[in-house]
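Study this fold:
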Amino acid sequence: MNVQEQRYEPRQIERKWQRVWADERTWHVPNPGEPDFDAGRPKAYVLEMLPYPSGEPHVGHLKCYAVGDAIAHFRRRNGFQVIHPMGYDAFGLPAENHAIKTGEHPRISTERSITAFREQFRDWGVSIDWDREVATHTPEYYRWTQWLFLRLYEQGLAYREEAAVNWCPKDATVLANEQVIEGRCERCGTLVEPRRLEQWFFRITDYADRLLDDFSLLESWPENVVTMQRNWIGRSEGAEAVFRCAELDLDFTVFTTRPDTLFGATFFVLAPEHPDIDRLIEGTANAAEVRDYVNAALRASATERGEEAREKTGVRIDRTVTNPVNGEEIPVFVADYVLMEYGTGAIMAVPAHDERDFEFARAFGLDVRRVVAPAGAEAPDPVDGVAMDEAYVEQGPADVLVNSGRFDGLTPADAKEKIITWLAESGAAKPAVNYRLRDWLLSRQRYWGCPIPMVHCPSCGVVPVPDDQLPVELPDVEEYKPKGKSPLEAATDWVSTECPSCGGEARRETDTMDTFVDSSWYFLRYLDPNDTELPFAREIADHWMSVDQYIGGVEHAILHLMYARFFVKALADGGYLGVQEPFTNLFTQGMITRDGAKMSKSKGNTVSPREYV
């Protein structure tokens, strides 16, 4: 008997069932209080990191969502009510750069990409609850991003102050860090310069200890991700000591984990970004040399500058500061191996006991004074620039202080406490905890982003936009390219407004928000996407949160994941949420590489799954 060959035609078969799923809303799950909600079944919130909609999805997206879809199906078959939503991280530089090149509004290219993403995700048969779909560029979404910004402002967690930025003198614009390639503007190749501008920040440093302590609340995160966040937060215990420049009546506070080595500080170093450099060099003979060095140093990344093997460079400033433990006047330098990201951006250099300081001292012929040595050893010459071949960094159990006045003979551990106590009597030092973490700079002088809902009034200062005037919608502009200021400055009718406080003439804030703000709370909007009164109802969020399984790339280990953790804690403190962590379990699915690099649209090495699925 001949058996007729039957061929599986996926497009024909799968389209049929995809239509059934859509018509029956198979993957839709109701919220508490809605018809068909089953309070007796356990919940499972399965979520992949929302994609940036540029062009069409590639096989890297398919890999990520295939993992999430498998987990969602597994949970359903084990009796869970599974929420598995979808959205788009739709603001950002790629669409804006496309607009600069083509003149096409970012909204048009973004929504075209969203359509392509939606079509392919449906073709793939991913079990998504499309009733919960959101896109961060829509006024319906960013109204609530602005609302949340205002709540953080009311909680004292959003503030404005001067900060260093990357400046392209040719394009006359501020550049994001990712737009600076080897110290040059990615668009025109011009050397980037540092400038200081008023910027908006979130006070994430207030949550540093909680971000560390609450790792204990997580069930399953990759250890390397936890380690990266711990290192990024960088908690250190030590002391703050004051070095004074009497000539300028200026105090410099330094953080050190080794107050036992204060007697060994023979010079003082400032980071190129330090805000007091201009004051220090004013009126000095080599001010121009210092400025040139600062501009050159800031073209290198913090990672490059922090490399131990990097040649030590710097310029001496014609000033001195006083070492508080012995009254010595020590020279002041600016050097690129000191970073503003750690401590105060100023260090007491102890070359005998720090490798980088030792290398710098050798390069510039500076004194090296050993102040820690094994007990019983002959005390070295206090000013010994010849005998040491390398810094004495490792502490032995028999080490004691030498060349340290009244503290000679004490162990380093005992000396730390006694020196801090002694200096504290004169206000020259105090115990301190320092963090590598810095507050989140969220201002962007770009067009395609969420407007910051604040106005500037000559009489009232900075005033928040009232909730009933939200959203502050992004206006249309003719020119997307910044020209020394945000493109929004050109929308003069939009910029000119009325002060909500006094009714007088005022100007809107023209910075937009970092797109990480949008992605720091999107998982909450999925839960209640049609709410017109609040970004989400607490009773709904408290039922579904935290996310039970989060899936995404390890490249987001620090910024996105840490910012989302901060947002959830801040919202919990404000009474808007009942959990402390957004993602209970995290899975990083790995990267797909092609031509030796991670598959990415920016690298032009993507492969579309369209012809295979």
The mean pLDDT is 91. The longest helix spans residues 106-124. DSSP finds 17 helices and 29 strands in the chain. The two ends are 34 Å apart (CA to CA).
